[in-house]
Structures are given as structure tokens and as C-alpha cells.
Amino acid sequence: MRPLSHLTHPDGDIAFHAFHAFVSPALRVAARGPLLRARHAGRPCGAPTGSRWCADCEATVDDLLMDGCKRLRTALSKEVPVTRAGQPVREMALVCEHLLSPDAKEEDSISWAPRLRETGNIVEPAWLRAARAQLVHYPLRHLEEQTRRADAVRRGASARPDRDLRQAAWAASLREDPAGLEMLIVAVLRIRRRVPDPFQVPDDIRERHGLTRTEASRRLGRALSALRTANPGFFTANIEAPVGLELPAAPPDGPAGQDHARATLARLLTSRVNEPDPHATRRKTYRKVATAVCEIGIGRPADPVAVATQDLGIAPELAGRMVRRLAVLVATAGVDWTDRVAESAETSVR
């Protein structure tokens, strides 16, 4: 038996073992959703072997447990946290009061752990509801956003990319196009939040600037090209690396950038006239995917990732990377132009 009263033990190791036994199961259940969304785009998290999570998520939960135990022990030493109004946090005071009571000496922390995981109900002790609020839910209130930011910084990305784009001296040229800047900031933040199609311009932004979907896609494409020219390191860390764009190097923004995108798409979508094409099947898939991207660009329903996944037989994640690469090229080359090239190339091989 590991009594709940051990959470108040003077020996920090004994106290932490009891805290871990009591809180860890509930904390892991509650943290799983935010960590999957922030770090794994909703996919399963697991170690190469065994039933544990990946090393990063295990480390995050371990840190949360250490911080939570430290916070509780600080409260037990008569330094109960206070509200903005300067009043002691009632829930934490209630937890401390129970842990210091005679009852806690007879209660097993391992036996009470499953009840801490359950949803609160009116028949459970008030101190248990308070423990769930203060030791499980309170530490996780900003976990998803904090994890995204920490992971981004660790790979060399900006902690506040929106602030950098609005204020940094190197981004001054990007701010000459307010619409492009706003779309660029949204795209960067959507990439960090692992939105499935981060380069699709939201309708409210497009309408606020009086842009059609085609114009908005073209402006975003120019903004992306301009960003890579202005700060290649920022572009790689905040856009290219997290989504695996692996875009070919582009000339500066403007006609040269558009020419580059069109030449790249022409190589991907079309075959040379009267010559055998060993990649004809793959080019056909590229055309189907590019056409689906164009459909989205003009506001029609389409699923280019599903097309790539089915036709190429690749994993959805890899298909998503290919679609994002094509989407940037399409936006820079022009939706209408790309659609015409894809249709013409498809007609010529029938």
C-alpha cells in the first residue's frame, strides 16, 4: 500500500512515487488528445517497441508530473496559489487539507487513481473533484499550443512567427502587400496546427480583401516565394520542414518566379511529343492531383490527397506532402494556367 498521505512526506522521492501512482494514469489519459493533435496530427503515438508513447511525449508527461508534484508540495508548505483577486485557490486548499488529514493515511494512492480518471459526479468526494481539477486539468490547459511552440523552436522555427512577419526588419518587403502578409501568417499558423490544407485561403480573408479564390491563391503563392527569398532559413524551418514540401529553389518573386513554377509543372504534367515516356502513369496521376488542386482553388469540392493516396499507393502523409508541393507550384503558376495544361496534356494522350 502507498498511502495518499505519502504525497506530503518530507522525503521528495517518497512523495513523488505516491504522486505518480495517484496522478499519472489520469494525466496520461487527459494529455493524450492534445499531444496527438500537436505532435502527431491525430495519428497514433507509440514507441518502436512496447506499449509506451514516443520519447518526446513521454518526456512531456514526465515534465508535467514533476511540475505538478512540485506545485502541490509548494501548496502543502502553506504557500497555496492565489487567484487574481489574491484569494487562495479553494480547490488546491481542499486537496491539501485532505492529504494532511488522518483519512489519507488509510487511503491507497493506487486504489484511488482509477477514480481520479473518471468524470466527476455528485457522489464522489469534494477533495477528489478538486484534485482532478488542480492536478490533472489545470496543468494541461495550454498543453497543445505549448507543445507546438516548443517543438517548433526545437527544430529551429520561430516561437512567434506571426510577430516576426509583422515586425522583423527582414520581413519589411513582405508587409508591402497586406493581403499577402495576412494570408502568409495564416498559412504558417495552420501548418503549425497541422491543418490538412494549410495553403487554402480562408473565405473571410479572401472576401475582406476583395479577392476571388484564384486571385487569393496566386497572391499567397507570390507571398510564399517572397518569403523564401527574404529569409530562406525562416521559410525552411516554418514551412518547408514541417510539411516536407521539398520545393525546388525558386527565382525571386514576380514573372521569373511564375515562369519557374510553370516550367516545373510542365515537366511534371506533360510528356515530350512523339517520344516514349517511362513515367506516363505517374504523370497521369500528377495531372489528376493538379486538377483536384485547381478545383479547390476555384471553390469546388475535391480531395487531391485521396487521389494521390489511391493512384500512387502511398501513405496519406506522403501524399499530403506531394499535394502541398503541387499546391504551391499551382498557386504561383496560376490556377487557370495549370488547369489548361493538365487538360491539354490529358487530351493529347487519349
Explain the layout of strands and helices.
Layout (H helix, E strand, L loop, with lengths): L11 H28 L15 H22 L13 H10 L9 H9 L8 H12 L5 H12 L6 H7 L10 H15 L10 H6 L4 H18 L1 H12 L11 H15 L10 H18 L6 H9 L3 H18 L1 H14 L2
Helix pairs in contact: 1-2, 1-4, 1-5, 1-6, 3-5, 7-8, 8-10, 10-11, 10-15, 12-15, 12-16, 13-14, 13-15, 13-16, 14-15
Structure notes:
This protein has 16 helices and no strands. By secondary structure, the chain is mainly alpha-helical. It has two domains: 142 residues, no CATH class; 194 residues, no CATH class. Helix 7 runs antiparallel to helix 8, helix 13 packs antiparallel against helix 14 and helix 14 crosses helix 15. The chain is elongated.
Overall pLDDT confidence = 82
Strand content: under 5%
Quaternary structure classification: single chain
The rounded Rg comes to 27 Å
Number of helices: 16
Please trace the helix and strand order, writing H or E for each element.
HHHHHHHHHHHHHHHH
Overall, the morphology is: elongated
Helix content: 55-70%
Major sheet characteristics: none
Q: How many distinct folded domains?
A: 2
Q: How far is it from the N-terminal to the C-terminal residue, by CA?
A: 76 Å
Structural class: mainly alpha
Which ranges are low-confidence, i.e. pLDDT below 50, for 5 or more consecutive residues? Answer: 244-252
Report the strand count.
0
